[in-house]
Amino acid sequence: MSDAPKNNEWKTLDKDLGRISQIEHATTYVARPLVAPGIALAFIVLAGLTAAVFFGQSPGNLVVVAAAVFGAYMALNIGANDVANNMGPAVGANALTMGGAIVIAAVCESAGALLAGGDVVSTISKGIIDPSGMPSSQVFIWAMMAALVSSALWVNLATWVGAPVSTTHSVVGGVMGAGIAAEGLMAVNWGNMGAIAASWVISPVLGGAIAALFLAFIKAKIIYVDDKIAAARRWVPMLVGIMAGVFATYLAMKGLKHLIKIDLITALVIGAVVGIATYAASVPMIARQSQGLENRNKSLKVLFGLPLVFSAALLSFAHGANDVANAVGPLAAVVSATQSGLIEAKVAIPSWVMVIGAFGISFGLFLFGPKLIRMVGSQITKLNPMRAYCVALSAAITVIVASWLGLPVSSTHIAVGGVFGVGFFREWHAERRLRLNLSKGKKGKVIAPEERRRRKLVRRSHFMTIVAAWVITVPAAALMSALIFLALNGLMSA
């Protein structure tokens, strides 16, 4: 009888511990989605404190602290949205795991920003407005702040809905909107804006066409031949050499332009030398890799895996070197105008500002990047290493061609356009083979028209969402920037 109360006590204790355990599990479940925003907030606060340490906390310098906070916020959003375009195809093709992609991208993005990001940047992105027309340095500072805040908010919204947008175009829209609000419509260089608007169409179409052409070549010369392995030994080293040459040219022109000035001809010579050397090194390597492989398409994926990883890393390096200016350009303008009281078209970027941009991009990728990486890599169309290789190569080639033609293009539009190009080419090729088989009297499985539409290889819902986001990026960022500028100017004038 004396043991009964003790047993009841143990049962009561077990129930209480079980309830506590359930509360702990529930708390962990609820808190998990808040971890990433919490870390991001800590980084933003740290950026503001860094600016306060360098500039003190006088009323005039509080503007720099606020600009540092918004610059860090913009850098986080660039990492969350823009970097997915470089890593998405490699992850979608299973050449990289999500964790491996994030680590490689974070290292290469930071290295590109810090080593080749440059010390001089045009604070008025692509000459959209004339800074000398601003009434005062104070108005210029509010305009840059408005551009920074509006572009960051727009990229954040696009990431939330799952649309990869151009951060360059977001900044351009922000600068344009603030310029119009400050000086009127005559403040904008409409010729440059027209060229940027044209790039909305040129970038994805050119990227998609080049990716589709390379995929057609791979299908004709390697996939649809009797001896696939022998064909791969002949053509894959050449394709790897082309990729190495193109990326060497791309990095010489874009990623290293701040370290040393290289013209297009010199960059092409560098690319040719690197491409030939890589081809010579790839021939024995591909021969070893292809030994013992079965004569089927699955075996070919092995040969494209390593080149795809290198291409993703190089794209990230060049992206960090170029797009860090989107985050820190307006911030550098605010710092310069606050320190000197002068409005300058080009300013030196302090090292602490560049660090905020580089680490912000890496943190944004690590905390929020997987969503857009999955979107670009697997949710638009199914990618394998050959298709992803075509996307990466087309991105580099398109940037080189656009630079030669003097066209302002978006790396986001090019990469996503490459994914669309690969997907639409696969649809066209599948329909063509079906018609060819029917013309030869070969009977295949009869599929109803509704089911054939449902089986399209490019998801139309994602296609329409992304295109709509591209079209409204500049006007949406411009409208938000104009409203924010008017609010800031009115608040400070009151």
Automatic annotation (TrEMBL):
Similarity field: Belongs to the inorganic phosphate transporter (PiT) (TC 2.A.20) family.
Protein name: Phosphate transporter
Segments passing through the bilayer: 34-55, 62-80, 92-118, 139-161, 195-215, 235-253, 259-281, 302-321, 349-368, 388-407, 413-430, 463-488
One GO CC term on file: membrane
Keyword Phosphoprotein: no
InterPro entries recorded: Phos_transporter
Membrane disposition: Multi-pass membrane protein
Keywords: Membrane, Phosphate transport, Transmembrane, Transmembrane helix, Transport
